[in-house]
């Protein structure tokens, strides 16, 4: 009885508010319910309304065609003629303003025993329902009735509640059903002669979606009940099970609820396509604010709660990208703070946050990281440097022996310029080399102990094959003998490309990562990795989502391992004991990532946990 009275109050409130919108006067036009007085995001929800008010209803049966005279059990008769205003009972009367003193009623045609009449209400959008209420006009009520909902605009139907004088026979359900936390989405059958019998003076039947559901007081944290109260359409089925023909007459069909916006909108509006959608806030998007809007994927979408608006957060890309994606593994590694990965970084930047310069570029120390010209080209000298890559911070190119300068374009003090692309600068105190040099190349030059420019135009890559140059090259070979890497690199293919459980067990770490940057530092080359997933970390050294890994230059020159920027790899290796960091060498496993590897790595992890290593 208390529930019925409560629904009566909600019916009055929702109908009155829906019809008049009187409460709008109490709110300032500049007030945003989704932001608190401290300008912080807070949960906001649309108004509670009668969602059926002035909505069209589809009825499978309506009296008036043909014209009939109907008589109730009290011998009160009336004419039903759809062509006459005073004697027609259309479905519009179901959702108009309900005046108890002057009822306007919809009436079905005669329903044969075993048949039914149905009413279908389309809400045109997902709503979260609080109650469904029917007020009958006459003393003739259906023997049995069922309430269904649809969440896909009428494509499929889910039962919400059954009513019958004989639940087991009509609906094959017990009238003593019990709702627990394990079956909170189950429809009950109510054996209610008091509600459906003709002797009942109360002509209203009311169904509460949350009554008797154990998690009702935890609704904000119960996805099961949130799904249970969600509907786009409501269907009422009126069944006749006795031996006589009957008709049914209903004055009011009410549905109390709110437009479903998941706590991220305070109202629903009609979009340009004529559809009802949420006016989303908190950087959310979608008809129900059910996802984050573009570029706001730094943390996962979550429904708002009274304690936390759970707004979507923009990715940090330092103004070098407007596209990003969410990575759950990185989000968990960060302590649930950040999971966004920037994609398609511009202005020659790379990295998870577009916060590094890509290979052959370095950061201008005089500009902020957000500046579009933050990355400058290394511009390393093609003869004096060992490659095109320079230090990310200083822009210093990696120079050959005896060469100096930011671009490696000068000889250091004590060295003299040659015309050799292999050794452009040699020590001037080496008399043997100096003599050969002066005889065959620069007979008129004198020793110069000051830095000299390396002339690119006069130092072509292909040296002239004269007897003099050959002699110089042979002499240089005596002092700088080439390293025979054949034997050292021979085992590379076996170690790098073969994968089995023994390697997984012996290595210190196994990770799935993307290479985002490279830095040359003398005898070492370091690569910046964006960690996608950690399968093994023996000493828990991988604490951040981005990690540097070190490779000796000897292994890099051997192309073992071979790492390329912006590619994903499965990496198995050992810790570098001197630098307390990750390292790779020719004994490491470096395989370009394939999706099928994930299943294999998970199997290796289980074997290790079961002490199979």
TrEMBL record:
Signal sequence segment: 1-19
Report the Gene3D superfamilies cross-referenced here: 2.40.50.120, Galactose-binding domain-like (2.60.120.260), Laminin (2.10.25.10)
Laminin EGF-like domain: which residues? 378-427
- Give any Pfam family that matches: EGF_LMN_ATRN
Q: Which UniProt keywords apply?
A: Disulfide bond, Glycoprotein, Laminin EGF-like domain, Repeat, Secreted, Signal
The UniProt record lists the Laminin N-terminal domain at 40-258
Can you say what this protein is called?
Netrin-1
Record's GO cellular component, any one? basement membrane
Indicate whether Signal appears among the record's keywords: yes
Q: Name one GO biological process term.
A: dendrite development
In what residue span(s) does the NTR domain sit? 489-613
Its predominant location is: secreted
Disulphide bonds in the chain? 378-390, 380-397, 399-408, 411-425
RNA-binding is among the record's keywords = no
Where can this protein be found?
Secreted
